[in-house]
Every structure is written in structure tokens, then in C-alpha cells.
Design brief:
The protein is low in regular secondary structure. It has helices at about 75-80, 95-100.
Length: about 160
């Protein structure tokens, strides 16, 4: 069993390997009513909790997938799509032995297909017949905003 906290982004969680024909996903109260202490202002200041929407009464589950291969636990948080107070604390959280022992590609078998990307972002490449490839696309953005010139200064 694993607890999956509700976050504002899709969440990947890992757990020890299990076999079966049916799996159960159940929802229950976590007992965690949140911690907004970080939003408190200076002592004596009047604060308004813009995030207080009342108790959670329903959950909309858009997607649920189980994978047989190893995944990075909390990858969305580690990639910066969700705010975490201590990223060092989640560095190896949920890392299972199967993830540690997962097969990896040898460096000589990795192909850089960057030059095969079309301007629209699609890939112009056909894998060789009889081969099994996994295509990974990596990108990075601190805030998600497209780079742009800084504000010009007035003289």
C-alpha cells in the first residue's frame, strides 16, 4: 500500500513490484488538513487565506496507470512542476531496489536525435527494423516562461 498525496500536478509514485490480475485504488481521508503556516505574515498583521476553499469533498481522477518498468518516484516534483519545501528530502524517497537495479542503456547505444527534430517539435526519424527503442525528450525551464530580453534601462 502507498499513500498518494493530492497535488496540483500529475503525480508518479513508485512501490515494490506486485503481481496480480486486479488492483484496487481506494480513497480515504489522509488526516492532513494542510499547513498554511508558511503563508503567515508578521506577528499582528492581518492575513487573508486566499487558498482556503473549504474541505475537499470530491476528487476527479483523470488518469491512473500501472507500469511494469521502474519509474522515478515523484518525478514531477523533482522536475520542479510542484513546489517542495526540501528537495533534498525527496531525493531518494520511494526508490525501490527494482528501480536501482533497472536495466540502463549503455552510452554507446544512445542516439542524440536533436538534429532530427522538425521546427514544429515532431521527430523526423524511423527506427531500424527489428529494434526496440525508447525515445526520451528532455527539456528544462525554471519557470516555464520563454526566454526574452531583460528590461532595458533608462539613462
Amino acid at each position: 500500500m502507498i499513500d498518494i498525496p493530492l497535488t496540483s500536478v500529475p503525480t508518479t509514485r513508485t512501490f515494490p513490484a506486485a503481481t496480480g490480475q486486479e488492483f484496487r485504488l481506494s480513497f480515504g481521508r489522509s488526516g492532513n488538513e494542510g499547513n498554511l503556516d508558511l503563508l503567515n505574515a508578521a506577528p499582528g498583521a492581518i492575513t487573508i487565506n486566499f487558498f482556503d476553499t473549504g474541505p475537499l469533498t470530491s476528487v476527479r481522477l483523470a488518469d491512473f496507470q500501472l507500469f511494469a518498468d521502474a519509474r522515478v518516484d515523484r518525478v514531477e516534483e523533482k522536475a520542479g512542476y510542484e513546489t517542495v519545501l526540501d528537495y533534498h528530502a525527496i531525493a531518494n524517497v520511494g526508490t525501490t531496489q527494482s528501480a536501482v537495479n533497472a536495466p540502463t542503456a549503455e552510452a554507446k547505444s544512445v542516439l542524440d536525435l536533436s538534429d532530427r527534430m522538425r521546427p514544429d517539435g515532431s521527430l523526423d526519424w524511423v527506427p531500424p527494423k527489428g529494434s526496440n527503442w525508447r525515445i526520451l525528450q528532455f527539456g528544462w525551464s525554471l519557470t516555464g516562461k520563454t526566454n526574452h530580453p531583460g528590461v532595458t534601462t533608462r539613462k
